[in-house]
Amino acid sequence: MTYQSTLDQFATLIGSKDSSWQEISPEYAARMALQNRFQTGLDIARYTAGIMRRDMADYDADSSQYTQSLGCWHGFIGQQKMIAIKKHFGNTHKKYLYLSGWMIAALRSEFGPLPDQSMHEKTAVPMLIEELYTFLRQADARELGGLFRQLDAAKAAGDTAKAAELQQQIDNHQTHIVPIIADIDAGFGNEEATYLLAKKMIEAGACCIQIENQVSDEKQCGHQDGKVTVPHADFLAKIRAVRYAFLELGVPDGVIVARTDSLGAGLTKQIAVTKEPGDLGDLYNSFLDGDYVQSADDIANGDVVVKANGKLLKPKRLASGLFQFRPGSGEDRVVLDCITSLQHGADLLWIETEKPHVGQIAAMVNRIREVVPNAKLVYNNSPSFNWTLNFRQQVFDGWQQEGKDVSAYDRVKLMSAEYDSTELAIEADRRIQTFQADGAREAGIFHHLITLPTYHTAALSTDNLAKEYFGEAGMLGYVEGVQRKEIRQGIACVKHQNMAGSDMGDDHKEYFSGDAALKASGKDNTMNQF
């Protein structure tokens, strides 16, 4: 809808009413409608699902067309991220938001900070989705409100060319609304619990839900020890539950990301049900660690025995009751997990790895693509990796294999700042810089995200401000370290009253009260200093 067509629509509607509507302005009504393009979370989910599907097709045609996101733990953080993207790049093309279960646990639970073990309230997940989209919709309203005020000024000045230019900007306004990839952990319960939570997430606006194959009541962060996976049948039931939720709510293009933690998960809580050799249950059980038994004498009281690989196997069972997988079987289990998930309804994969290594990721993806040629990943560029040390060691190892002299470097101490200006460190930084493009091209990574970057940036910026403000710099610590940079970098938030909605509130007061409106943005508003 264009500005003029929306105005005409409201003029017709208001003109059809009796005199009690005479003080309702078609232009004001049109502006408010354009500032609130998305009426519900489902409108957002349908719109953003279409974006993701088109982006996936673009990537299939050209692997350089990968997508990216940053994890955001508050609506304001997500809003400022998208405002910054529009400012620096002109549009939000292929830029998403990520909703991290880790950050919800650490920052948004009523219990206080929690580890990433699905102990936080499940309702916190859809609540954050709704909050993020509330702030993004406000960013739309704020930006359009500024254009409307400029339009009024141009018309008042009789500048028809400027007014036409502004009206074109309004008609071609790009929304701040982008897809969210939302973390549902392991589903917070059984498949019915997964379905109910998925519905709430979709209703809040989520077009993409990421679910992992861990046991929901034993769930661990992907970068912690003690991870326990479930048999494929259990996981696939939850994938179907999410799909049914999308279909029920009228979002057929909804995207499901199936995450496997099998690379680092050496445990299972269950022995899978199997009906015949070679079925999924049998394949899952074939990875169990244990001893083959020849007779009943090999079985102690309480031991469990399964038939696997055509033989009787006594799986190794821990004191916790959990069973172990064979050491070194992780990559094979990942490949099976991924193929199985894609063949049973998942759209994208997530392989949780212990290091950022394009070769390692590519080796698994290439095996998966032998069965599912268009398999592609969402990949966690995790802050849990020591990127500097990992890549310096990758360069060190590569050079050593090539026969290059690396005697000037201590592999264990490569994190040291003394190496920062060396040839090795420069090459490592180059590889970090191109990691996303390299991973997209060589390892099937469609979407690169950082799970909890804004957790770290909040801590870092607060540390820097506290050090200066409470130290000798005093107020200069804030002025030099924050405000002066905001002004010179054109950070819109320097006008914090405007960002919080003060000017929009003034617009509405004028709409509602006319000349009697008491506005906050007059000449005595200190924001006029900026």
UniProtKB/TrEMBL annotation:
Alphabetized Gene3D superfamilies for the sequence: Phosphoenolpyruvate-binding domains (3.20.20.60)
A family per Pfam: ICL
Cofactor: Mg(2+)
Record key words, sorted: Lyase, Magnesium, Metal-binding
GO biological process: carboxylic acid metabolic process
An example Gene Ontology molecular-function term: isocitrate lyase activity
TM region positions: none
Presence of keyword Zinc: no
Cofactor note: Can also use Mn(2+) ion.
Catalytic residue list: C221 (proton acceptor)
Binding site for Mg(2+): D183
UniProt-recorded name of the protein: Isocitrate lyase
InterPro entries reported for this sequence: ICL/PEPM, Isocitrate_lyase, Pyrv/PenolPyrv_kinase-like_dom, Pyrv_kinase-like_dom_sf
Signal peptide location: none
Reaction catalysed by this enzyme: D-threo-isocitrate = glyoxylate + succinate
Organism of provenance: Alkalimonas amylolytica
